[in-house]
Design goal:
Length: 122
């Protein structure tokens, strides 16, 4: 589904997981079918917001937006989010200490592992 609509940013909320929830309001009633409404409930996409008086997109902007390839449909989480979630599950099984310290220690191990490969190549 593709939706191209003039809108105003009317609110935002910071969430516990460090993401931001944005609220946009349109001035026109959107003609979206119930099937398309269901498809947008949990879908990922691109949000392009331009705050200026010109409320229309030019053809070049539309083509540029359409050309962006999204892997959000295949993987809704970023690689770093996936790594953090996996480390959390491992931490839950081990159950030692606080997750914050465990995460810091494990990611530092990963970083040092790859840094050592850089040192070995030089």
């Amino acid at each position: 589904m593709k939706l191209l609509q003039a809108a105003q940013l009317t609110g935002y909320r910071r969430r516990k997981d460090r993401t931001v929830s944005l609220t946009f309001t349109t001035q026109e009633i959107l003609d979206i079918s119930p099937i398309d409404q269901m498809a947008t409930d949990e879908s990922g996409g691109i949000l392009y917001f331009r705050a200026d008086d010109q409320m229309k997109f030019n053809q070049a902007e539309v083509e540029e937006l359409d050309a962006i390839e999204l892997d959000l449909y295949d993987q809704p989480k970023s690689q770093s989010q996936r790594l953090r979630n996996v480390l959390y599950k491992v931490w839950e099984q081990d159950g030692e200490g606080e997750f914050k310290e465990y995460y810091r220690h494990q990611t530092e191990r990963i970083i040092e592992h790859f840094k050592s490969k850089l040192d070995a190549d030089t």
